[in-house]
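pinging the channel bc i need a second pair of eyes. not urgent but kinda urgent?? the chain im working w is below, pasted from the shared doc
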Amino acid sequence: MSDLVRLEPAADGVLRLTLNRPQALNALNRELTGALEAALERVAAMDGARVLVVAGRGRAFCAGNDIK
């Protein structure tokens, strides 16, 4: 899994997915979007996953699309 998205168990059946691009306020670029899609597919395939908490590392959750 990419370092752009971190997926960790938080509790029984609860997973925490963290966007990890704080220098860009977690703005979505192609790489982060691809990593996010891969992580979501992985979560969807997990039998025991009941809840997914999505967070952003740093001072912003997600600034939207990175237009640079």
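so The mean pLDDT is 95. and The chain is about 20% helix and 30% strand. — does that match what u expected or am i reading it wrong
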